[in-house]
Amino acid sequence: IGKLTNGGEKPTSSIEIAKELGVKAPSAVDMIKKLESMGIVEHTPWRGVKLTDKGIMEYKMLIRKYKIIETYLHRICNMNLDEACECASKFDVYVPKKVIDTMCACMGHPKRCPHGDEIPSDRECCGVS
What is the pLDDT of residue 127? Predict the structure, then answer.
């Protein structure tokens, strides 16, 4: 949802979410309802689904995890960029924040991933918001 809403900037439809996830619309609607009950998204009929402030924060932390792992695998483990991307996407959600922060500190708190994209910072780890 974060990707489809451009990080929370614009709403998206349940149909688009279903397409992105490769599921049928009713499954996407069930997921949207669950996320709404958790305060992650807001669904307005005929207007779409958008991330709440909490959802935007969660999305940024997921992006941070992925990009820190990708950067670590590329820089420290010397994996080529394609391999690092693929591997990071398979387990990023399972890595605890403490491990991500340790990896980040080990690399000197990188600001950008190997693709040149910004890595969201974390106040507790990097000392900035």
Answer: 82
Angle, helices 81-91/53-75, rounded to nearest 10 degrees: 140
| Ordered structural domains, the chain, with CATH | 14-51 (1.10.10.10), 57-126 (1.10.10.10)
Reduced to 3 states (helix: H, G, I; strand: E, B; else coil), residue 42 is strand
Please say if the pLDDT value at position 129 is more than 60.
Answer: no
CA distance 80 to 83: 5
Q: What's the alpha-carbon Rg for the chain, to the nearest Å?
A: 16
The pTM for the full model equals 0.84
Report residue 94 as tokens: 């399972």
- Please provide residue 45's backbone torsions phi and psi, each rounded to the nearest 5 degrees: -50, 135
Residue whose pair of structure tokens reads 């106040």 in the numeric block: 123
pLDDT band of 7, cuts 50, 70, 90: confident
Residue 6: strand, helix, or coil: coil
